């Protein structure tokens, strides 16, 4: 059995919740575009050959990425990026447009058409810089011919409620779009493209970041149809018709319609977790990263995490207390109740129920973009007293979980993590702090 140690001096002066928030802030700061994008600018400059430099992009971090690029770039730029409402950052040369997320709206549809028009007619001496991050899939809405925006909105709502993974959702999106799945890259031809991506997807596949507007896509229409069947989703008739046609096929690797494309990951979930681990160790707490690409139903992942945490607290295995267990990725929530959803708060509510008030275990789960589901709340924190406090307020934690109402639960407790737009997005962040013999 592993030897236990007393909590470090840091925790004798600060609440465990303060340490958890400190780790979350370190993770978010590590993915700040102002910090991680400028080092790549010298590489970009060497690729410019005297023609126009056109910047395009989409995502919750795209406006902040555009501002960071402008700050570091010495020379003229033009272009357009689209971000979520409330996530805009002022830029001098690059136009910023706001649109809806996670269900697309008219503003996103208009932005997509304008972006396609901006890259039309570029030549081989021009350069396109793509700035894409999580959220770009909904923000760039360009339905294929025969599909209406209303069709895509209805399908988006069904997919988001189905429990499908983000890679599955994005596979469907790529095959119903006139701009995703490499089609925006084809519109840039023959101008070369340099993509700078902030990844919010498990595995960091560029085709899944904003559904890959400027990269090739190896998935197929048949796979998209199989996903809809797997989750029992009956798409609108126009969607089904288009998916059954060759027109819905995306741009494949090696397609001669694609220009030269170079893709670079500016920030990833693993980078954020490494920063949080470093912050924990600076505070005297050993930190262990369990994975940066964890998927599955939020409540099922919570039960698995609870089992590991309880083993650490009771037996010192696989890690002795004090310690922090860190993980990232993107869980899913299959909406069956009438609550407000949110995969991080659902994870935490299920985690609290599985831990049953176990002494010494505290946890934070939050989305690094500052928005969990559709709520302007990043996530929440639980302590060993969470369930008892809830019951004194007349809350039934199990009933709240059954109703998918994690946001309502933590709002009543006042334990939400509220950051506002962080202007980055490297997916979910989870930290379980395990202390010996504490309540």
From TrEMBL:
Residues 20-243 form the MOFRL-associated domain. Residues 323-428 form the MOFRL domain. Pfam families: DUF4147, MOFRL. One of its GO terms (cellular component) is cytoplasm. The keyword Cell membrane does not apply. Gene3D superfamilies: Glycerate kinase, MOFRL-like N-terminal domain, MOFRL domain. GO terms for molecular function: glycerate kinase activity. Keywords: Pyruvate. The keyword ATP-binding does not apply. PANTHER family: GLYCERATE KINASE. This is Hydroxypyruvate reductase. The lineage of its organism: Bacteria, Pseudomonadati, Pseudomonadota, Betaproteobacteria, Burkholderiales.
